[in-house]
Amino acid sequence: MSPQDKAKIAAGKAAIDEFVFDGMKIGLGSGTTSHFFVRSLGERVRDGLSITATTTSRSTTAVAEEVGIVITDVNDIGELDLTIDGPDEIDRDFNMIKGGGACLLWEKIVAHASRKMITICDETKIVDVLGAFPLPVEVVRFGYRQTMRLIEKALENNGIAGADIYRRETNGDPVITDSGHYIIDCKCGQIHDPAAVETALNMIPGVVENGLFTGESSGMVVGHFDGSTKIIL
Ligand code: 5RP
């Protein structure tokens, strides 16, 4: 196992120890870090921990069910106590880029349905300024090239000129999200006002949601390559 995976696992376990309690309603994030967390949570559930859980992607539902966590439909769970999820990038104010796994829409819906969100990550995800990781924007398929033009304009209006903007594809086929949309990735370079960019992108007709999370997370559990962890609140 790589040191990075060890760090991801350590972060998830520390988050369970610190933030997960019997009887909680929990949102389960997506991506490799979250999947490690879900596997650790499954062990605790087998040891008697009682939680109610919902997920942020079909892939996380599959992992949760594999490890014996019963998944409640997001429409039936009411307000969640806590969501635990991973970022692609996170700054020291807990602003994040998410959506590297194309799950950003469900992740944001579940995060906003939760009283608290805690981010779990390995040390490589922490940055001074967001933007090196391409910012994903989930768009409806109709007129997506028009939407891309408007995304470019909105980025320019927010001080991000010359961004490389393209539809995400795998083996020549467009990536389709769990909700049936396209993902447009935007290589921005540096995003100095992530809250403004998040709002501006979501004003564009055709944009369903974007991967900037600027007010959701209230803390992070960082896993280091030596296996140690740090909680930052
Ligand atoms: C999926 C996401 C993931 O949470 C994000 O990509 C982090 O993934 P990983 O833990 O594999 O680095 O936003 O849409």
TrEMBL record:
- Please verify whether the record's keywords include Oxidoreductase: no
GO terms assigned for molecular function: ribose-5-phosphate isomerase activity
Locate the active site.
Answer: E107 (proton acceptor)
GO:BP terms for this protein? D-ribose metabolic process; pentose-phosphate shunt, non-oxidative branch
Note the InterPro entries from the entry: NagB/RpiA_transferase-like, Ribose5P_isomerase_typA_subgr, Ribose5P_isomerase_type_A
Q: Which reactions appear under catalytic activity for this entry?
A: aldehydo-D-ribose 5-phosphate = D-ribulose 5-phosphate
Q: Which UniProt keywords apply?
A: Isomerase
Q: Which Pfam families match?
A: Rib_5-P_isom_A
EC number in record: 5.3.1.6
Q: Which residues bind substrate?
A: S30, G31, T32, T33, D85, G86, P87, D88, K98, G99, G100, G101, K125
Give me the Gene Ontology terms describing cellular component: cytosol
Answer yes or no on keyword Isomerase.
Answer: yes
Pathways involved: Carbohydrate degradation; pentose phosphate pathway; D-ribose 5-phosphate from D-ribulose 5-phosphate (non-oxidative stage): step 1/1
What is said about its interaction partners and assembly?
Homodimer.
Q: Which HAMAP family match?
A: Rib_5P_isom_A (MF_00170)
Homology family:
Belongs to the ribose 5-phosphate isomerase family.
Its function, per the record, reads:
Catalyzes the reversible conversion of ribose-5-phosphate to ribulose 5-phosphate.
Q: Which PANTHER family match?
A: RIBOSE-5-PHOSPHATE ISOMERASE (PTHR11934:SF0)
Q: Which NCBIfam families match?
A: PRK00702.1 (NF001924), rpiA (TIGR00021)
Q: What is this protein called?
A: Ribose-5-phosphate isomerase A
Originating species = Hoeflea prorocentri
Q: Which gene encodes it?
A: rpiA
